[in-house]
């Protein structure tokens, strides 16, 4: 299992849209791999998009102003 970690806070601070980078990283994940996203807010649109693409996820608040969402590509399509 491989975990890719992306903290979008520096990208947002520079005025960049992190969504293309996040979707590209998600597309590269293999079965069982994870994408860990740290953001200053709950990234609900990203969660809905990747859930629709079959990813499972876990959310936790990591202190004031930080959310961590871990997306995992299931090992098999039926999971």
Give structural notes:
The chain has helices spanning 9-13, 19-27, 44-52; strands at 3-7, 34-39, 56-61, 67-72. It is globular and about 35 Å long. It is an alpha+beta fold. It has a single domain (3-72), classed as Translation Initiation Factor IF3 (2-Layer Sandwich), CATH 3.30.110. Strands 1-2-4-3 form a 4-stranded mixed sheet. The protein starts with a strand and ends in a 7-residue tail after the last strand. The mean pLDDT is 92.
C-alpha termini separation = 16 Å
> What is the overall number of helices?
3
Q: Can you tell me the residue ranges where pLDDT is under 50 for at least 5 consecutive residues? A: none
Radius of gyration: 12 Å
Strands, count = 4
Looking at the overall shape, the CATH architecture is: 2-Layer Sandwich
Mean pLDDT: 92
CATH structural fold name: Translation Initiation Factor IF3
Report the sheet-strand fraction. 25-35%
Class by SSE composition: alpha+beta
The coarse silhouette is globular
Q: Major sheet: order of its strands?
A: 1-2-4-3
Which range best describes the helical content: under 10%, 10-25%, 25-40%, 40-55%, 55-70% or over 70%? Answer: 25-40%
Summary of the model, kept short:
This protein is of the alpha+beta class and 79 residues long. It has helices at residues 9-13, 19-27, 44-52; strands at residues 3-7, 34-39, 56-61, 67-72. The chain is globular and about 35 Å long.
């Amino acid at each position: 299992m491989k975990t890719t970690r992306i903290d979008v806070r520096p990208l947002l601070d520079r005025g960049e849209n992190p969504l293309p980078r996040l979707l590209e990283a998600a597309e590269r994940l293999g079965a069982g791999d994870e994408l860990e996203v740290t953001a200053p807010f709950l990234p609900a649109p990203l969660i809905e998009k990747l859930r629709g693409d079959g990813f499972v996820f876990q959310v936790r608040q990591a202190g004031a102003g930080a959310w961590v969402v871990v997306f995992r590509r299931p090992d098999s399509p039926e999971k």
